[in-house]
Amino acid sequence: MGAESDIDRAVAALSQAGFAGPHACAIVTGTGLGLLAASLAERESLPYAAIPGFPKLGVSGHGGSLHRGRLGGRPVLVLEGRAHAYECGDAAAMRIPIGAVAALGADALVLTNASGSLMTEAGPGSLVMLTDHLNLSGLNPLVGEASDARFVPMTEAYDPALRNRMREAAREAGLPLHEGIYAWFSGPSFETPAEVRMAGRLGADLVGMSTVPEVILARFFGLRIVALSVVTNRAAGIGDGDPHHTETKAAAARAAADLTRLVTAFVERLGPQA
Question: If you ran DSSP here, which 8-state letter would residue 232 be given?
């Protein structure tokens, strides 16, 4: 059975469970950022395991449930946790969830992640809005797609209008918001200091192991994207940067309240559809 048939099965099951839209947006939460899902009003939840075709998650700090509810008074979907390419060797691990939320009536996708920072001004706990990315993994989630739709344009993949709304939301919430370019490494091992230096010379401000394949998939499914990164550590070789997963989870959890405030203020600026 093909991926599109799997998406249809997931959408049918979710529609029957009351998850049909319209929705102001869908949100993907990264490592340690489940507080955002917990803050939903009128929340209803389904574990990924109960949704046809949704991935099994194997990373601590990722909840593994789809939620519907209200954030800032607006109807939203929250994907609590993501599957990573390094878990299964498949860059398209999130194809069915992203295709499903698009079909369920969300036309905007808010992606969040935890990252290592190369920026002196954005240390642990900082929030950074992504303006572009570097795919340094050698992977692409559309490899094997047969249709010409695989040739997805990536200019302004991070939607300028949504980025402006996020800036306004940050000002309204009184939260500093940095901006930068995210470099995707496949993981699961952290980057070496030499790799971080290379990424910096190529223009990266952040490094991480997610998000980029979801951006490509979201563009494939016609979604508009805005992405936020919570800095959990200095990247390897930057200052005293020597990242490890325990540090990532703990720092993300500390910053989750600020992220939730920012995303809530952003969603308040959206209609039923962005």
Answer: E
